[in-house]
Amino acid sequence: METLREQGPSSYLVKLVGFSEVRLSHERLIFYPAGKVEEGGKDHVSIYARIDNVGASEMQIDVELKFFIYNHNIKKYSVFQDGTMKHYSKEKKEWGLAQMLLLSKFNDPKNGYIDGNACIVGVEIFVIKPREKVERVAFTQNPPENKFTWKISHFSEIGDKRYYYSDEFVVGDRKWRMKISPKGDKKVRALSVYVQAMAYLPNAVASSTYAKLKLRLINQKNSNHIEKRVFHFYSRETQDGSGISELISVEDLNDESKGYLVEDSIILETTLLCVSETMFVDSI
Prior knowledge:
By secondary structure, this protein is mainly beta. It has two domains: 127 residues, Apoptosis, Tumor Necrosis Factor Receptor Associated Protein 2, Chain A (Sandwich); 147 residues, Apoptosis, Tumor Necrosis Factor Receptor Associated Protein 2, Chain A. The protein is 4% helix and 52% strand. The chain has two helices and 20 strands. The strands form four sheets. Strands 1, 2, 6, 7, 8 and 10 form a six-stranded antiparallel sheet that branches. The longest helix has 5 residues.
């Protein structure tokens, strides 16, 4: 694949006069102006990068290679790569493109690759570090002890507080808590209810956590409970919350005949129907 870019290669750039072979102290850019025939480069220009310092402690070096030829006509570099990872080792120290460019195209001065008897070629070598661990995310449906019930007594006494918080509880590999705004977060006067993700358990991987929640305001006189569902990806930051900003209007909540506020108490439930847990494993 050939593309164009104005910037030259970051690893190595050289002007070849007479198209000679160029060597570096530990890497070598090898240019075959008549093609590397033994690897299928007949009628093509071939170019290779050699790495000699693959030691015993490094059984293999994985790299991506980009080769460059400067085009004097358009003042840009033609960039060539085949999109595959190259595996350097003690047995295989040379990789490249046997058919980088047709020889007839390269030799034609109208195409701009040659300036007199010289050309400019280069290479970018990107060393790919081996993957140490794989992050595995598991989604658990109905995890153990996934329901939390919060009875708030003396509800009328917390009306002046903007937020009121439950105790923390554990589901999956993280602690959680409920948070309410008794008079609402918006202009509409309503009970706001949220679930916040808190600290991780010891040895848990601190990563974003997906949760599917069921929030419920219990009707203490009949089964006419108010129930809402929430889906949210919680960040790694503690106190990230999601929920319902208008679960019930303040007027309906304070109307004891409706059954949600009884003896100055309300009961809220949250059930984590699904949570994700992240762990590091050696392979997928």
